[in-house]
């Protein structure tokens, strides 16, 4: 793919429709580095923002991008390096121990009766 050697203009679309960027990234930039960039640029006034890169998922072309991949590996050969690529950002906080216990207790406390 010829696009792998170049720079990619990427903007990140947040769930509320606002954007971070666009910024230019080399094709060798890892997805984890993109997520670190998003964390650094996250608007402070937005509630429930990500705390770590584990809270973020990047979606491009309908696929969730893996942290160990590079931007060049995740781009379709149809993309043009001269245009801006939009990646969707999903914030998904991991469940806390308290939430996990509540969920397991809820399923344990159910009883069922079957009348035949």
Automatic annotation (TrEMBL):
Keywords (A to Z) from UniProt: Cell membrane, Lipoprotein, Membrane, Palmitate
Subcellular location: Cell membrane
Keyword check for Cell membrane: yes
Membrane topology according to the record: Lipid-anchor
InterPro entries: MUB, Ubiquitin-like_domsf, UBL3-like, UBL3-like_ubiquitin_dom
Residue ranges constituting the UBL3-like ubiquitin domain according to the UniProt record: 7-113
Coiled coil: none
A GO cellular-component term linked to this record: plasma membrane
Gene3D superfamilies membership: Phosphatidylinositol 3-kinase Catalytic Subunit, Chain A, domain 1 (3.10.20.90)
SUPFAM superfamilies the UniProt entry points to: Ubiquitin-like
Major site of localization recorded for this protein: membrane
Function per UniProt: May serve as docking site to facilitate the association of other proteins to the plasma membrane.
Designated name of the protein: Membrane-anchored ubiquitin-fold protein
Species this protein is from: Flemingia macrophylla
